[in-house]
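User: Run a structure prediction on this.
Assistant: Running it now.
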Amino acid sequence: QVQLVESGGGLVQAGGSLRLSCAASGRTSVSYAMGWFRRAPGKEREFVAGIRWSDRYTVYADSVKGRFTISRDNAKNTVYLQMNSLKPEDTAAYYCVAGNGLGDYNFWGQGTQVTVSS
């Protein structure tokens, strides 16, 4: 099993920035990719960004390209999501994920709330 703990959520004004962190523990050797999803009230869960552990290859949803950056610290088994130029539509619960590869996630964190005020 892999345990994921998110932090860094909060309330920010539109145009502001936040950085989310996700610390992985447990059998992290089975996690070859990590990423972030989000779910806004009344909406479907949405993929945000992913990063492959081996070569740092990254993928992003079109809605966040150019504003969000995913990165990782191998030594700390931690992945980050730097969110800039935040918009009210970015308001959601953000979930960290880990798994065998990009798009193949089988471990989920508890989520951290991000609220962007207009």
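The chain has no helices and eleven strands.
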